[in-house]
Each structure stands twice: as structure tokens, then as C-alpha cells.
Design goal:
Blueprint (H helix, E strand, L loop, with lengths): L5 E4 L3 H12 L4 E4 L3 H8 L10 H7 L4 E4 L10 E4 L14 H11 L7 E4 L7 H4 L7 E4 L8 H6 L4 E5 L8 H8 L5 E5 H32 L3 H9 L20 H16 L4 H14 L1 H11 L6 E5 L14 H8 L4 E5 L13 E3 L3 H5 L4 E4 L11 H7 L4 E3 L7 H6 L3 E3 L11
Parallel strand pairs: 1-2, 1-4, 2-3, 4-5, 5-6, 7-8, 9-10, 9-12, 10-11, 12-13, 13-14
Antiparallel strand pairs: 6-7
């Protein structure tokens, strides 16, 4: 079966994963980027990102992938996605100019009947504001999750497609491509689709914030959040797939961007976003949880403490440190010696004046008065309490995400604390 060629412009995280998924579904793919160096590296199998399963996926379907820095090569494609990542500054504001520039470059190279699809995340009004022909211009909600990007790209729950006219049929080539994934296709106006992505993230943040608030209460009143979660999942109004895991606020930049976008749009139109600002405040509050535990259990009791920090990425299975709670913790621990280890992220000496890079989690623990697990990397689950206790100088184990076996670490005489569990008094 001859399938239409699909193009992807912008070979950052979103574009690379999306192109690999299209090839895996049997489509010939033209993967374009304006950077010839990046294109050459990808053609040679060198990835600029860390994503589980992606190297294998690219190798398996390499014969259907063509990497190019020549935009004229996109003319062979019936559908072209603009799929570059959108930079976000420290205040949560997106820099949309690279997306606009890429759209302009790509549009001039397309065949007359080709569909141009914006896959990069953009705010409401962006797609219509491009002024392109509605019959050939679409916005599609991306579902990228760092660390699970391959899974999400290959098995999407649904496609949300913004259209100039939601009642009109999609172009045949775009329909053929989307239907190859076997999931529902939801057509709606541009602005609805652009807001749908934000809506999904806001509902997620609402769940995260609720979990964080209630977990904090558990820590102080003797309740255990892990005992409460099963009851919530059995409630049909909440459901078995609800995100109920407490954490150290928000990280990665994407959720923060959407919260700031809603606040700006609400302010511009005189609507209320007070609850969104409360979520932002709660995120900042919970980010300091690990630091609070360290101060109470170590800094207040040890004159010159040494601390072990395990994990620097903002979450597991990614090299991204955007808004990472671990980096914020390093800044706060500037006066103290810190042994740091991450399976993917190399500790940067400039991030901390007394930083010591360790080659393993256990090496980081040697001589430390406390160990803090800031990123729930799977390899940390293999840490045994006797091995940790033998290397620590102190007794504190701060495990926000609960990836260790808490009862075993407490039984080994360690001062083990985790989010959502009654906090013991600091060991004398």
C-alpha cells in the first residue's frame, strides 16, 4: 500500500519523536530542520535528546525516514507538521517567533494541496492569526510527555484537530495519517483546540495541587496519603487513572507556561483566574519540602554538613532540567558540600560552589549526613538500606517521591521521610 509522505519541520524533541512514530506507522517521512549539523547528526543516528525507546524506534524504521536541511524536499509531502519545541522563559512566557519563522519557511515550499499542521504548542488565536488558507491549515494538540514520549506518540488516546471549519472534512491525506493510529479524531475550531491543550494541563495541575495539599496534611496529622488514594480511584467522579501522586511542585516548564497563559488571557478579558494563581503559589510552597526536611534533620544539628543529592533532571527518563526542583535545591544548599549524581545529567560545577560529582548513587552517599532523592530514576529503586546506611555519616534519607522501601529503611535505623506520610521527629 502506497501511503502519502508526511513531513515534520523542526527536529527538536517533539519533531523527532513524532517523525519516528509516523515512520513506525508505515508512512514515508521527510524530517526537516534548518540546522544542517543537527540533520547530519540525526542521519548518523546521533540523538540530541534522551528518550526511552527512541533510539530503537529510529533504527527499526530508518528506511522510511529521510533527514534533510533542504526545505524544498518537503514539497513531496501531502501533510507537513510544524513540530518544533517552543522555548519558555523563566516567567512562563513562550517565544513564538521561531514557530512563526518556521511556518513561513515551510509554507513557501509546500505543494498547492498540502496540509500544514501546527503541532507546536501555541496559545489561543495563534493559528487563525497566521492568516493562512483555512482549508489547508490545521492545529493539532501535541501529547508529548518527557520520558513517555514514544509511548504517547505511538498509542495516542485521541487526536484533537483545530480547523478553520470544523464541519468540513479533513484533507484525505491527513485523514489517512490520523486514522492509521486507530484512535478517535476530534475536530473543532482553532481556538477550541488551542485551549483544549491548556485545559488538559490545567485539569492535571488541579489534581497535582490537590494531592500536594492533602499529602501535606497527612504529614502533620498522622494520616497516610497512600492509604487514601485507592479510595479516591474507586470514586467514579475521580477515576482509576487520576493523577494523585504528590510531588515537589511543577517542573519542566510546560505546565507552568499554561498556567501563566491562562492568567494573562483571563486578565486581558476581565475573567477570574484566582484559583490558577493559588496553584502557582502552592507549587512554589511544595518545592521547598526537601529543603525544609534537610534543615530540620541535618543543618540545624550539624555544623558543617555534607549532603548527597540524587537526581538533577526535573523528572525521570529525561535530561531536561527546566524548572528542576533539584537545581533549586542545589542553589539553596550553596554553603554546604554537596555530592551529586544523576544517570543522565552531568553535575555542572558552576551550579554550586562546593559541588562534588559522584559516579554512582552509592558513591554520592559516602560521608554524607543526609541523602536526598530528588528525581525518581528507576535505578534508585535498587538502593538497599544496609548499603546506604554503611556509607552515610548521618541517618537522614529524604525521599519525596517514595521510590525506596520506607519500612525497610526505617528498620535499618535511618531517619526516612517521604511526601504524604506522617513525619517523624528528627533524630537526635
Amino acid at each position: 500500500m502506497n501511503r502519502s509522505a508526511i513531513g515534520f519541520a523542526g527536529l527538536t524533541h517533539l519533531g523527532i519523536v513524532s517523525a519516528a512514530a509516523a515512520a513506525a506507522r508505515g508512512f514515508p517521512v521527510v524530517a526537516f530542520d534548518i540546522d544542517p549539523t543537527r540533520v547530519a547528526a540525526l542521519a548518523a543516528g546521533e540523538l540530541p535528546i534522551v528518550e526511552p525507546g527512541l533510539p530503537q524506534l529510529l533504527r527499526l524504521h530508518r528506511e522510511r525516514l529521510s533527514f534533510t536541511a533542504e526545505r524544498a524536499d518537503l514539497r513531496a509531502c501531502a501533510v507537513v507538521y510544524v513540530a518544533t519545541d517552543v522555548p519558555v522563559d523563566e516567567t512562563g512566557v513562550s517565544d513564538l517567533q521561531p514557530v512563526r519563522d518556521l511556518v513561513e519557511r515551510v509554507a513557501s515550499s509546500l505543494a498547492a494541496e498540502a496540509a500544514l499542521v501546527i503541532l507546536s504548542q501555541v496559545p489561543p488565536g495563534f493559528t487563525r492569526g497566521l492568516g493562512r488558507p483555512p482549508a489547508h491549515t490545521f492545529y493539532q494538540v501535541e501529547t508529548l510527555i518527557f520520558g513517555r514520549a514514544v509511548e504517547r506518540a505511538l498509542e495516542p488516546e485521541r487526536f484533537i484537530v483545530g480547523c478553520g471549519d470544523p464541519a468540513a472534512a479533513l484533507p484525505g491525506a491527513l485523514t489517512e495519517y490520523l486514522e492509521a493510529f486507530g484512535c478517535p479524531i476530534l475536530r473543532m475550531r482553532y481556538e477550541s483546540a488551542e485551549l483544549a491543550k491548556i485545559s488538559i494541563n490545567l485539569c492535571l495541575v488541579a489534581s497535582i495541587t490537590a494531592a500536594n495539599i492533602l499529602a501535606e496534611l497527612c504529614e502533620h496529622i498522622g494520616a497516610d496519603w497512600s492509604e487514601i488514594v485507592p479510595a479516591l480511584r474507586l470514586d467514579r467522579r475521580i477515576g482509576p487513572h487520576a493523577y494523585l501522586t504528590p510531588g515537589l511542585g511543577l517542573g519542566g516548564g510546560n505546565l507552568e507556561r499554561d498556567l501563566e497563559t491562562v492568567c494573562r488571557v483571563a486578565d486581558a478579558h476581565g475573567t477570574d483566574a484566582g484559583v490558577v494563581r493559588a496553584w502557582i503559589a502552592n507549587s512554589a510552597h511544595r518545592r521547598d519540602w526537601a529543603l525544609t526536611q534537610i534543615h530540620e534533620r541535618v543543618v540545624a544539628r550539624v555544623a558543617e554538613p555534607t549532603l548527597a543529592v540524587l537526581g538533577l533532571a526535573y523528572k525521570e527518563n529525561t535530561a531536561s532540567t527546566k524548572n528542576s526542583p533539584a537545581l533549586a535545591l542545589l542553589t539553596a544548599l550553596a554553603p554546604f558540600v554537596v555530592h551529586a549524581y544523576d544517570p543522565v545529567v552531568t553535575p555542572a560545577p558552576e551550579s554550586h560552589p562546593r559541588l562534588v560529582a559522584a559516579r554512582s548513587a552509592l558513591e554520592a552517599c559516602v560521608g554524607a549526613d543526609a541523602v536526598v532523592l530528588m528525581t525518581p530514576w528507576p535505578e534508585f529503586r535498587d538502593l538497599r538500606p544496609d548499603a546506604v546506611a554503611a556509607r552515610l555519616r548521618g541517618r537522614a534519607v529524604v525521599d519525596p517521591h517514595g521510590i525506596l522501601e520506607g519500612p525497610a529503611f526505617r528498620a535499618a535505623g535511618l531517619d526516612y521521610v517521604t511526601l504524604g506520610y506522617p513525619l517523624p521527629r528528627a533524630a537526635a
